[in-house]
Amino acid sequence: MPRDNMASLIQRVARQARITFRSPAGPAFGENLHRLQQLLDEVRAEDLHLAPRGPSAAAAAAAGGGPPWAGVAPPVSYMHICETESFSMGVFLLRSGACIPLHDHPGMNGMLKVLYGTLRIACMDTLPAGAAAPPPAAGSGPCLRALFRSRQHYTPASPPCLLSPHTDNLHQIDAVDGPAAFLDILAPPYDPQHGRDCHYYRLLEGPPADAEPAALPREVWLVETAQAADFWCGGEPYPGPRVCL
């Protein structure tokens, strides 16, 4: 059963997010962000009336039908909680083995808190292209030079994973050993009309499959790609405490 104070906890998270991201360049931003991180770290799956599972088959219908998802539950589903001009908040549910491909968050801050399951999150920073030329494997797609900073496992016991406009802004999220879910805050929300559109990338270089993983951090080249055909995101209703802003 949810703890008695959890209906107020997710409300307090939303209110603190509104305070924090209303003035991201203000002198109190660091202190407000730390307070938001502390609150987010307290949230558990039962607080949002969630139990470990993958996205439901019902979400396939919510996705709108048609190839490639007709009659098939999506690999990832989203539960919308709230959105303002300064931030959005919701829950992503990943089926076992699902992956949210490498993507960016232009000019955005973000916070991710695992609710159940285990996620492997790879984080990268964009770098100036400089005089270096991308590898021949790049082909004709737009290329991006990046710093591959980390690849870590996150569980409900882990602190939130943070990203900023300049640090860990690109990331890939994989569900490991079963389904997983995480609470997600993005500030400000995606908005293509204001230059905040999601772009997907593919890593151009890496060790052979039978080699030891290359040490991190390291510089890499990425090529921009279209959204993968086997990745799409369905929608499900949010079952947790109501949030009012």
Automatic annotation (TrEMBL):
GO annotation, cellular component aspect: mitochondrion
GO molecular function per UniProt: metal ion binding; oxidoreductase activity, acting on single donors with incorporation of molecular oxygen, incorporation of two atoms of oxygen
Entry keyword set: Dioxygenase, Iron, Metal-binding, Oxidoreductase
InterPro entries registered for this protein in UniProt: PCO/ADO, RmlC-like_jellyroll, RmlC_Cupin_sf
Pfam families per UniProt: PCO_ADO
Name under which the protein is recorded: AEDO dioxygenase
Gene source species: Elachura formosa (spotted wren-babbler)
